[in-house]
Write a structure and sequence with these properties.
Elements: H1 11-20, E1 23-30, E2 32-33, E3 45-46, H2 48-58, E4 64-73, H3 78-95, E5 99-108, H4 110-115, E6 120-123, E7 128-130, H5 142-147, H6 172-197, H7 206-209, E8 214-216, H8 217-223, E9 228-229, H9 232-240, E10 245-249, H10 255-259, H11 268-283
Parallel strand pairs: 1-4, 1-10, 2-3, 4-5, 5-6, 5-7, 6-9
Antiparallel strand pairs: 7-8
Helix pairs in contact: 2-3
Length: 287
């Protein structure tokens, strides 16, 4: 078949061709998944409040053929992961539009929760996929404050109000309670993956799959965590043709936030702490 552009004899033919071109919106989900205050989405963070309008926009075009998710996330909040995924699935079912999800560098932990929102799931051969588990990390400073003669004062109503306080000795009952909470969240995560991937999963490898282990693209495909290897542009062009119209959605920020380089003065300290947390999350996967 010739790759030469088609020549249209009159404007009506050209307009008809334009109307018939398949449209795919691209929703990019990149960053650590963390609660937000409903402000415009900052680079490096994902939360439901900031993404709601973008999700609505993704399913808005009248001639929509499909929605593509570009996922590049090391994970984060299980609640935000579930809220974002559920919102995407609700819109997809309302509009009867397929969702194709593509992993980039990492789709791990909460990032895989988002990836599984796709009806079809793809990854690069070098993508890191999986980490289906729950983690809680902190520090213990009780000996440090004792060394400097610092007295820790806590007053509560309710004996369980203080749990896993980093300035107090760790208690076995607190650790046991934390493990129970983690177990419940892990079960919710596993149920989500099983519901979304169904019979595509290799059941003989459930133990390994749900251990929190990570896998590269080809191994993830053998386990059923993804359907195929491939990058977004190549897969979409092969699926929908060279006349495909890609509508890439990007977050918007306020003029004042743009003028100040993306942050107002009161936000700087919070963003610095958020950046440290984000770098730690990405660092777990060597990025």
């Amino acid at each position: 078949m010739s790759d030469r552009p088609k020549i249209y004899r009159n404007p009506r033919q050209w307009l008809q061709h334009r109307r018939n071109r398949p449209v795919v919106t691209v929703l990019r989900l990149e960053g650590v998944i963390a609660p937000g205050r409903g402000t415009p989405l900052r680079p490096g963070s994902l939360n439901m409040n900031a993404l709601q309008s973008m999700i609505d926009q993704a399913f808005k075009p009248s001639r929509l053929t499909a929605v593509a998710l570009q996922v590049n996330s090391p994970g984060g909040s299980p609640v935000q992961s579930a809220l974002i995924s559920d919102a995407i699935r609700r819109r997809a079912e309302e509009k009867k539009v397929p969702v194709l999800a593509f992993a980039e560098d990492v789709a791990a932990s909460g990032g895989y929760w988002l990836l599984a929102a796709g009806d079809e799931v793809f990854a690069h051969s070098a993508s890191v996929v999986g980490s289906i588990g729950v983690i809680s990390a902190s520090f213990g400073f009780q000996e440090l404050i004792q060394r400097y003669g610092i007295e820790r004062r806590i007053h509560t109503a309710g004996e369980k109000k203080v749990m896993m306080d980093p300035f107090s000795p760790e208690k076995e009952e607190d650790v046991a309670r934390l493990h129970e909470i983690q177990k419940q969240i892990h079960e919710q995560f596993m149920d989500h993956v099983k519901a979304r991937r169904g019979d595509k999963l290799n059941r003989r490898r459930y133990k390994e799959m749900f251990s929190g282990e990570i896998f590269l693209g080809a191994e993830a495909q053998r386990m059923g965590l993804i359907d195929e290897l491939g990058d977004m542009d190549s897969v979409l062009r092969a699926r929908f043709g060279k006349d495909l119209v890609l509508k890439r959605l990007t977050p918007r920020s306020s003029p004042i936030r743009r003028l100040l380089g993306g942050a107002s003065a009161p936000d700087l300290a919070a963003q610095a702490a958020s950046e440290i947390e984000a770098r730690t999350s990405w660092g777990r996967f060597g990025l």
